[in-house]
């Protein structure tokens, strides 16, 4: 397996992480800060983008911040299955 590559754009405060380079992908909005890129044909995640990254990594008084994946409820059953299958495989 290829090591993920990361690229941080300071101007837009965006962290891009690619698991599989040079693959055409569909963006899935998991919430307003997290975009998962998937290859629907192979049913795999190929990258993830974190918007407002500096905000995402800030610790709150109570510990790490939480960002519920509210976008999952807006997905079709097939797409949700692909997304959830990816996360289950990582646990």
List keywords for this structure.
7 strands, alpha+beta, globular, 2 helices, two-stranded antiparallel ribbon, 91 residues, five-stranded antiparallel sheet
Protein model, in words:
Helices cover 20% and strands 37% of the residues. It starts with a strand and ends with a helix. A 5-stranded antiparallel beta sheet has the order 1-2-5-4-3. Strands 6-7 form a two-stranded antiparallel sheet. By secondary structure, the protein is an alpha+beta fold.
DSSP, total strands: 7
Q: Give, in order, the helices and strands.
A: EEEEEHEEH
The averaged pLDDT comes out at 84
- Proportion of residues in helical segments: 10-25%
Give the strand line-up of the largest sheet: 1-2-5-4-3
User: How many DSSP helices?
Assistant: 2
The portion of residues forming beta strands comes to 35-45%
**Computed CA radius of gyration, to the nearest angstrom:** 14 Å
In short:
With 91 residues, the chain is of the alpha+beta class. Helix content is 20%, strand content 37%.
Q: Mind sketching the topology for me?
A:
Layout: E1 5-9, E2 14-18, E3 26-31, E4 34-39, E5 44-51, H1 53-56, E6 59-60, E7 63-64, H2 77-90
Antiparallel strand pairs: 1-2, 2-5, 3-4, 4-5, 6-7
